[in-house]
Amino acid sequence: MTAPDVTITDLTVTFRRGEVRALDGISLRLPVGMVGLLGPNGAGKTTFMRVLTGVLLPSSGSVAVDGTELTSRGRRQEVRATTGYLPQELGLYPDLTARQFLDYMALLKGITDRRARRARVEEVLELVSLGDVAHRKVKGYSGGMKRRVGIAQAILNDPRLLIVDEPTVGLDPEERLRFRALLARLAGDRTVLLSTHIVDDVVQTCPNVVVIERGRVAFQGAVGDLATRAEGMVWHLTQPATAPPPGLPTVNVTPGSTGTTYRVISPTSPAPDAERVSATVEDGYIALMHGTAPERTQPGPDLRVG
Question: Where are the annotated coiled coils located (predicted)?
Fold first, then answer.
């Protein structure tokens, strides 16, 4: 499988006869491998993913996978055949076994040859480490195992573009690590777009990140570069008060024997005893969301680095 080329050009989506602009002129070229998608609730991430999966037609602009336009109604089915999607809430059939569920999903994806379908189902079960328990009903699975069934159905058609929405929410730390490792293995020569509110998931798995806010791209580039958006503006402030300092974005709160230490974002020192510390990716994201990060010039829509 050759590397996919996913190009988004001036993508705009409006609702209510143009009164609500969910996406506002997004232009990107997604690289092969893991790409994080960050943004607050209501930023437009879900709309963006719905367009990429061919569920929603944009109001204007274009999305193309290997030159095939998703915005062409007649070609959307062709693109869907090369796209996999794991929504945040996937409706599983609890009384089916994992093997039965995946066989059914494979039929829906057009894998009609019985022998080929069975072979593909067994292949993806092994890929997500469920082969030994595939005979068990889904209702008896843990949350992490159900997510792995979800990713298995998303890759049945061996997609070139795989989109996953909040896949680690509610998982325990061990399951989160296992799922992140699975996504990294699946990336290979395909593009995997990971939408999440958990910044650490992006830091640990994604070389590149896109931040969407109010329907626009607020940041695009290497994930490490996001930290630089808060460089020189991150402070540790220890005080006896139990409430965070007013008016300052607070990244973290750590209670201690001498008081509570707040990790805050501020262009200038928030107090005489405040200690400046190095910025992390999460600091950069918080600074960006609160409008305290400096403007950054962006050299074009191509996310590819290195």
Answer: none
